[in-house]
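Subject: sequence -> structure tokens, single chain

Hey, anyone have a minute? Need the predicted structure for the following. Not urgent.
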Amino acid sequence: MNDSSAKMLTLLPGKSSPKRVLVRTAAGPEIGFGHLRRTLILARKLRRSARPCFLLDREDGWSQDQVSSDGFEYRCFNSRKPWNGLETADVLLVDTRQRAGLNRLVAEARMRGIPVASIHDLGLAPLASDVVIDGSMLPSVARFPRVDTTFFTGTDYLVLGDACSRFHRTNKTIRPRIGKVVINLGGGNGCRFFRRILSGLRAAQLPLEVVGLPGFCSCGQEKLADVSWDPLRFRWLSPEEDAVKLMFDADLVISAGGLSAYESLCVGTPLSALSFDRYQAATIEGIAHAGACLNLGLGAQLRSDKVRRRFIELNENPELRRRLSKCGRRLVDGGGRLRVVRILLSLIERKFLGKANGC
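Reply:
Had a minute. Here:
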């Protein structure tokens, strides 16, 4: 199977009921919130043709709330008996770095004749899946155990929301000077990193508008808006604002190395990025090597003076920002979610065609 052969599902006669897709994922400060965000994006695109059901950890109340508020059902995941109490399914989708119970879940799905697709950033947590998707900058297939697995790798299969694709197609203006900066450090505890970045930007002594995207953890970061950052005008993203549009309208995004970095590349806003762990570090190094961002290094080692120097370099060189914008858009086109949905639907079609043909 390849991308061109992964066609949209055409329901067979007598098979008009929605197909069931089980989605195993997880979120939290340790593993990040990108896995859940990505699977929710896919579930929304699948809901016309399929009925997604999420498998979530019992203690993962945040993910349960997000899934329920989006109108999807979920079941609590039992790592020792992963199929206990579950209905049958037409496809199993796995997107998590939490390994407990995954091999059992995949093995039982295969015993039941259920095709398995899994998403792996940087080739981490390999599984014996039918289809492996790795939309990261540095995909790896070396450690996967099955020789008959089909791989879809590279940023063509990076899953981002609809808004990223829309703004990717919109002309991006690179202004002579930077006037608006967005700081997006993902969903975890980024309070101390926000402080270092804001201190570095303030040291440039320019009247910038700076907007922060708050994380999902309660870590005191909200108090940063009460601090005087003069001459900066700092505020948090308001509930009625669209985060992707805000990034598109900005002159510079400073982000961590997760989905937020890829979103900035897709919409064409020049990016300066830091990393929270060695996996994000590898991602940012790859993006910087491709000429699509300036690397701020590890967040734990970040100093405000480096932020200031990087900002001045970008502010005084609009041609550099223009090159970063063009390289970013070449790397990430925002169409990955549609390609991945076509792959998942083709797995459902293959299963039902097999049944119809007596295979």
